[in-house]
Every structure is written in C-alpha cells, then in structure tokens.
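Morning F.,

Quick status update on the modeling queue. The single chain you submitted on Monday has been processed. Sequence for confirmation:
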Amino acid sequence: MNAGIIGRITYKKKVLLLSVVVALLALANILTLVFESGRPGKDSFAWLDSSLHVMADRIELYGAEGGTVLLRKNNVWLFQGGSAEYPVKQGRVEDLLNALSRKETYPKRASSAEARDALAVTEGRASRVIVRGGAGLPLLDLLIGTSDALGREVYLRKAEQNEIHSGEDIFTVYTDAKARYWYDLRLFPANLRVDAVQQAEVTLPETEGNNHKGAFVLRRSGSGWIIPGNEGVTLDNLKVEAWLRSVLEAEADDFGGRALERIDGSILFRLGDGSIRSIQLGPLEEQERYALVSDSSLIYVLGEWTVGRLFRELSHFLKDG
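Structure tokens below.
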C-alpha cells in the first residue's frame, strides 16, 4: 500500500473523529440550554389539590385523538359529543382526578422559553388536561410534553408557570383515549339483579336467510322457570339464570347517531316491583344493529355477536334429555 492511499485513509479518519467531536459538543450545548438548572430539584407535590374535586364540573382533554370534554351535571359525569351527552364510567373520571391529586416526585428540569419549546410543553404542541370549576374557572391547566430518552417519563408544566418538571407518564392514557374509553355502554343499571326479574318476553329478530321471527315467554315459578301455557316443557334453570345475567350485564359496542327505522326484535323483563325494562332492536345494517333501551333516549349500537348472545332461541333453554 503506497503512502498516498495511507494518507487518504488517515485524513478520512480525522474528518470522522472531528465530526463526532463536533456532534458531542453540539449535544452538550443543547442539554445545557434545555436543562439550565444544572442539578434537578427534587420536588414532591400534586398537580391538583384533592379538596378541589368537589368543585370540578368540566374536564377538557387534548391529545392524539383530538379533544374530549367531560361535564358533571347533578353530580354525574357525562361525555359531551356535539349536541348530545353520553354516560361515562364514573370511576374512570375519578381515576383521572386522583392521578392529578396524588403526591409524587416531579423534579424540576428547566424554566427557559427555549426549554419549553424544545420539550414541547407549549400551547398548541403539548397534550393538555384542563380541569374547570364554577363559571369556567380553571382549577388546573396542565401541559404534557415529549417523553424522555427512555420513554418512561414525560415533561410537564402548568400553563401559567415557566417551570418544567418531569414525571411518570400516567396522564397520556387519558389525553390520548378514544371516546369509547370513557363511555358507560351498559344497557341496564348495575344494581339491577337477576332475582328481580319475574318474567322475560323475547321476540327474536330476523336474520340473514331467515325471515321467521320466533317469540316466547319465560316466567319465574317458585325456584325455577316455566313456559306459561306449556308447563310440561322442562327448562334448564341454570341456563335461564345465566342468560338473564348476561343480558343485565351486557354492554353495547358504541352509541349511535340516528333513530331506529323499525323494531325488529325485543327483550322485555317484568320486575317484581311492577316496572319493566326492555331492549328494542332495529334491523341488521352492516353486521350491527341499533337498539333502544328503557329509561334512556340514547341509541346503542350492538354488533351481531352481542345480538346472538342476547337473543337466544327457546331451544337454548330446554333441559337436555
């Protein structure tokens, strides 16, 4: 190998080494700029005082799925979807408020304008949690920026403050959640018990390739169940009770946006106190159906798998043998 080739290789190595040194110096300069506070302070605090929970009546969340608004009316949280309001899982909202009010260690990382921009804790770039109370009074406006190098922590800043802190990422699960994450899609109240049902009246919906709709009645008799007018048929009481439980605990797949065109099937429960609970089912449309439930003006969306599980044929309840 001649001297010219050796010289060119040496030169390339020098250029590569110099490039690495320049990159490291640039990185060090950026880190100095962003984390200008030097040694982070060990700050332990909660973002929201728990005493303010009772005042909270509106929560605004902004993240990957856009904006979500939760409203509290008559001490019940609701999801605001356009002009409609949908029930939400109350415990899930409380989980969010508790996470905001839990005292944790949030080290201070920076406070400069350059750092706020670099760590994306600025309005318009950050995810955001706004908790309001009273006449729109902001109880908390929390900006959630980028993740750290390991992806385990995020940078956080109160909108009215310059200081940037870091902490475990326990908030983007809420800001990035889809609407269905919040919805309470139960068809019946959780406190409705199986033993309250005294009679079930079922009208089966039409299915593809089968236009014949069947209808039957199951009535509680002592500790078991009978078919009124056909008491000689033996029912499997365990299957009836299991089915009742599955109906009472059923959840829809989503909320619908328009009214039922016609009723294609129904389940009606007569309770011991004389009241009635029912599901009215619309026709099949693209493997799903719209449904109306008693005591609610909302339209629920049920997939065909859910419909098949709820609308059982009479033969399902007959005792084998």
